[in-house]
Amino acid sequence: MRIRVVVRKRPMSKLEALERGEADVIHPLDYDEYGRILVYQPKTKLDLTKEVETTSFAFDNVFDEHSSNLQIYSRAVRNLIPGVFCGKWASVFAYGQTGSGKTFTMMGCNMTGVRAGNQSENISDENLGLYFLAAQDVFRIAEEPEYESISIGVSLFEIYGGKLLDLLNRRRPIKCLEDSKGKVNFPGLSEHPVGSAEELIDIIEAGALNRSTGTTSANADSSRSHAVLQLSLRKDVGRTKNKEHGNSCVVSL
């Protein structure tokens, strides 16, 4: 199992840059095969002279504030999709503080900025969510003749206040249990068949309306929960019907 760590720098907000006059202390460097983040931190030495200390961190990929969702998907996520059709499990986790851009990255430009009133400013094909971009590749590969027996289902739930709630089934509670083989299962979680990327995004948008949100000083559309999207690939194997063949899981923490 290979774990990759990818960092995306968010742009400074108007409040940070204009009203507070704060300095940008994060410098991303992209070297194609890997990336670095330079963090500049003002220091005062014992003799009271001032200096700027630079700390470097290395990651698998680094993207600056001008990078689009499509660029991030193409370099960091796209290569995971073919493996799902070979019976593998692929997971993508988006982790960051409130207002860092998790929902914008995962759900896309069309699902953010509603309360802030700037949704129309962000909409572009370059910034569709990783959910949708992954779905496009999944359904493109599913059209190939060798995968004609595979069906695709989607489930979406949130983790909020220590509870798991099905966002596609009126926020009904579900459980997280481990079976005798060590596999994690979600009894009660609904799974909905989908036939295209457009149909999938409609389901995701409907589920997102049920997600717990709130307003913070950093973000008018802050998601107050962790969202988990699962794409399950199923096929008939012998006498076993609808057996899970592969799984793609995208988590917004």
Sketch the topology as an H/E string, one letter per element: EHEEEEHHEHHHEEEEEEHEEEE
Task: Choose one word for the global shape.
Answer: elongated
Query: Could you tell me the number of beta strands?
Result: 16
Separation of the first and last Cα atoms: 21 Å
Mean pLDDT: 86
How many strands, which pairing sense, and closed or not: the largest β-sheet?
7 strands, mixed
Written description of the protein model:
The protein contains 7 helices and 16 strands. Strands 6, 7, 8, 9, 12, 15 and 16 form a 7-stranded mixed sheet that branches. A 3-stranded antiparallel sheet has the order 2-3-4, with no helix packed on it. A two-stranded parallel ribbon has the order 1-5. α6 packs antiparallel against α7. The two termini are 21 Å apart. The relative contact order is 0.15.
Q: Strands, helices and their partners?
A:
Blueprint lengths: L5 E3 L5 H6 L6 E5 L4 E10 L5 E10 L1 E3 L5 H8 L4 H4 L4 E6 L7 H6 L11 H4 L7 H13 L8 E10 L2 E4 L5 E3 L2 E2 L5 E2 L6 E2 L3 H12 L4 E2 L7 E2 L2 E12 L2 E13 L1
Parallel strand pairs: 1-5, 6-16
Antiparallel strand pairs: 2-3, 3-4, 7-8, 7-12, 7-15, 8-9, 10-11, 13-14, 15-16
Helix pairs in contact: 6-7
